[in-house]
Each structure stands twice: as structure tokens, then as C-alpha cells.
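Thread: "does anyone have the structure for this chain?"

Original post by V.I.:
We have the sequence but no experimental structure in hand. Need at least a predicted one for the grant figures.
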Amino acid sequence: MEKKYKIIIAVCIVVILGNIYAKFAVLDEQTYKIAVFQTVMSSSRSQNRVNMEKKLTPAEKMTSDMEKIIRQIPRALSFTELAARVRFLIDRHQLSVKDSLVFRPEKAEMAALVKYHTQFSVNGSYKKIKGFISDLQNVPGLLYLDSVKIARSEENEAGLKLSLGITLFFKRGNS
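Reply from O.Q.:
Generated one for you, C-alpha cells below.
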């Protein structure tokens, strides 16, 4: 019997020593990591509060928004490529062009941008016109649809007539 008690006491001592080691080696390290994490998060929250307190004026917000828009415009896109892409989309969707695609330069409000405008009409089915407008919206760069008018074609022609006004914006060469 005494041998049994010695084994039980030895096992208890090993378990107690194991728990003590786990407390100091593992739990203290985790407690330290949690404390560091809480400190980092606390300073992050206080920094966010400082940033939230600094409100932008309307002019600063507008400038910030314009900078975001300009960053979205690809640099590699040139006017010739953009105009050719519009013409390619017209041909791809088998639309007949009534007017020629003449792009007029206009003064852009921002010096970093160049602005061109055109108006033209095309004839085709609803499905082709819908596909054309969808593809036109996916052209890289900043493309603004000034006016869109869809009407029935003239009596001797089938389908619809789309009158479209487009303004193209892109970065100047050195921007």
C-alpha cells in the first residue's frame, strides 16, 4: 500500500510542477501578448478618434475626391486609342453611324486632364444598342455620357436611333 501512495504523491507532484510551469511559461506569455495587443488597439482607436475629429472642409473634400478620380484614369490610354475604341464598339455591334465621329477639344476644369466631346447618332436594334452602351461604360478611362436619347428610327429604316453625347477625359502626357 505504501508504494501506491508514493506513486500517487509522485504523480501529484509532477502534475503540480507541470501546472506551475504551464502558468509561468505559457500563460504569462499569452497574457503579455494580450496586453501588447490591447495597447496597440487602444492607441489605434485613439488615433482614429483624432482623425475623425479632423473634418475636411468642402474644398478639401472636393480636392480629395478629384485626386481619387484622376488616379483611376489609366496613364497608357491616349486620345487616339480612346476614339478608336469608341469607333470599334460601334462596328462591333453592327450599328450604322449617321454622323461622323468628330471629337472637339474643350477646356477641362483641371489642368491635369484633357477633355474631348462628340455627338453622334447610330441606328440598330435594341439589343445591339444595349450591348454598345454596356461596352461603352466599360471602356477604361473617364468617359461621361452627356446625353442619351433613344427613339424609333425614321419610317424607312427599321430599329431604333440612338443619339449620344460623350465627353472623354484623360491625363495629359506628363501627368
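V.I.: this helps a lot. The first strand starts at residue 96 and ends at 97.
O.Q.: and The CA atoms of residues 37 and 97 lie 64 Å apart.
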